[in-house]
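Hey,

The postdoc asked me to send both predictions to you directly instead of through the lab channel. I've kept everything plain text so nothing gets mangled by the mail client. Protein one:
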Amino acid sequence: MRARDLTRGKVIEAGLSLLDREGVEAVSMRAVAKSLRVTPMALYNHVDSKDDLLRAIASYVLDKAMFDGGASGWRDQVVYCFSEFRALCLRHPGLSRLLEGPDIAPTSAFAPMEITLRALGQAGLSDLDSVRTYFTLVSFTLMQATYQSRGDYVDLEPNAATQRNRINGFGFKVLEQMELPRQWDFDRAFEFGIGLILDGVVSAVQRRRA
């Protein structure tokens, strides 16, 4: 690419592509310039620094995300919000690490928090418990998406461990007798997990009102 054909949008897209393929550690001015076949100096006509580039990538991804499903019920709203969050993490596995950087997260990163806290408030949770629940949902969703993106941890799979006789005879009777599906259904697992968390919200509200 010729430097005169370069745009800020193309620089951001190249950085995002690098983030998706290799992770946030791989995103540097030099690496992005190499992927665009321009000199690193050419990038500085469009971004001020590496941090400016990282902020632009985060904004590019999050500003387009639609976390508000417009659901009337609080539970449906939370499920929609975190289903979108999970889909975003699966499309861009390096996003969570990117947002950990200081002064990188754009204002739009607070959109799912606002939506979730409003919904949990409607459910009857206190402000503090709503925030606690939000971070529980974030942690669960991030871990589940990370697990799915990386693929199975074969050495820790009960089925695989049993088949390879790694746990047979060591007293793990429950694991030995389990009959699990050969192919893990991540979508069903996500639905089950978020359902457990939200069932906990209902129980917490009932205890509070008792």
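Protein two:
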Amino acid sequence: MGLLWSMRPVPETKPGRRFQKNNVQTTVKVVISVYEGHLANGFKHHTPITSASVERSSLTSGVHRVEVIEEGIKGTLFIPPGSGPFPAVLDLSGGLGGRDEHHSALLASHGYVSLALEYIGFLNASGKLEHVDNTYFETAFAFLKKHPKVCPDKVAVMGMSFGVSVTLAMAAYSEIIQPKCVVCVNGFHIMPLDGSLADVYAALQQNVDKIRYDEKMRFIWRDLLLPIPDDPTKKVEMGKIKCPVLLIVGEDDQNWPSSESATDMKKMMEKAGNSHLLTLLSYPGAGHLIEPPYSPHVRFSEFKLLEAKTKVMMVWGGETVSHSRAQENSWQKTLAFLEEHLYDNSRETTRC
């Protein structure tokens, strides 16, 4: 798979491009070509010696994709083939906004009903950005639980990047969201007690002077939330979490202080006596964008600032080989974690 995860944009393309498939219902087509000699650029002007095409799909045959716009929530529901009922995952992507369906499509292909929830980037009638409150996530979780294809007592939450703080806060405080387990990828636990997304955004805006830049003036955000506060009222109370937690960390994350946050979370859980619920996977040389395996490593790319409605170049971090190995290993461990806690080590869905 090295031919896939080591891919780079050709030099003449626009800088900051990120290899990303928006439409999960169609396959990714990759053409592998062999040329005479070494080519640094100008591939289009040369005839390859030979070529082969491969196709990759996020959806297995029979998975149903359903648009969800009801009960005040917006998202996409993916349902595996079969009669069910199935375990389920509430999928909270990162701070880019919109709807990232890639993880949910793959999870449905592995036997989980998954709801890719849209929760960032909503604009009101005047065009101003609005932040959803905690009730929004509770409504989404309740919607998933009562779906006829879902085992109501086997629902997990998966948060990536910005979605991690929401995942942890809901698991710790919500009386409605009581997940069977949670998966968190490269995020943080910094959120005021009884706080919301609006509070997190406000804290970030207060620390804009901590933004750093690399040698090409690309944004590095990880210092926005450093140092990790000592005040427990400014962090999710990890001792209140009562379900298994899988925490995935890229040690070269340049977007969030995920390593420092993970270390503090572990200490908090050890002090509270619930550290037996924590599984921590920390990967040296891995950056922020830990995607499912065999997707090209992206060290930096263009990013839209929702508040300012402008685009900047963001540094995500990671070294290609180490990052790609982390993507493969963490995805295998994620599937094993969900299998253990949602399927009770059995694929007999009649147990639901």
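Summary for protein two, as requested: The domain at 59-344 is CATH 3.40.50.1820 (Rossmann fold).

Thanks,
C.
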